[in-house]
Amino acid sequence: MRFGEFEIYPLSDGYFALDGGAMFGIIPKTFWEKTNPPDERNRIRLALRTLLIKTPYDVVLVDTGIGDKFNSKFLDIYRVDKTRTIEKSLSELGISLDEVSIVINTHLHFDHAGGNTRQDQTRRVTPKFPKARYFIQSEEWIAANSPDLRSRASYLREDFLPLEESGNLCLVSGNCEITKGVEVIKTGGHTKGHQIVLVRSNGMPFPLVYWGDLIPTTSHLKIPYIMGYDLFPLTTMAEKERLLKQALKEGWLMVFEHDPEIAFAFLEEDNRIRVYEG
Question: So what's the pLDDT on residue 260?
Fold first, then answer.
């Protein structure tokens, strides 16, 4: 869609599935299964939705999906569906991997950063977007390189270490403007260095926000609906409450990374949404 001076495209890297109980934490299954029906292994379907932002200055990709550097066991555990890929999504827009100039990772879990890198014919892992600068919070980088026992399975080093080796890595600390009109806001909560992306463009009366895993689906808009995966749940709740108030007041257009059905929506009173289809 046209977004002021920018063009905005939701890109799909397919779908995967995670345990419904883990996705909703303390919320009883009798509540969340109404909107997120689980399979026979209690897993719910989730989108791998990244965001492309074309500005007059840069081609920006926010998160890179799950990638393709996994084996059959991983495929089965997470019920990965790769009928769509980032490469195919970009190709349909006439954009090559070399044209992406900025990649922003909300954080470095495998379902958000798996597409950062790829294997060549010799099985060497290199940046998938070779001419891009990859922007990651410094605290996230430190945590990913020295994960605790709880987080270790979510961080796969082949997704991010090659970025440092190639010189594509750009670490930031806190809120900052990455390129004109594209800002990262550090929220913490899900991980210590989790960040969301806020986009403002001339000619648009409202900003656009990409929530990452702060609010992964529309079902997580209610403040207590937070994931069991969140390392700092009280921070998640506080940041959700603060930012959703601002989103309602300023009319933010929200992008949901993992919602299997809804990509864009506006927030209305009482956590109701108005789906935006462009």
Answer: 97
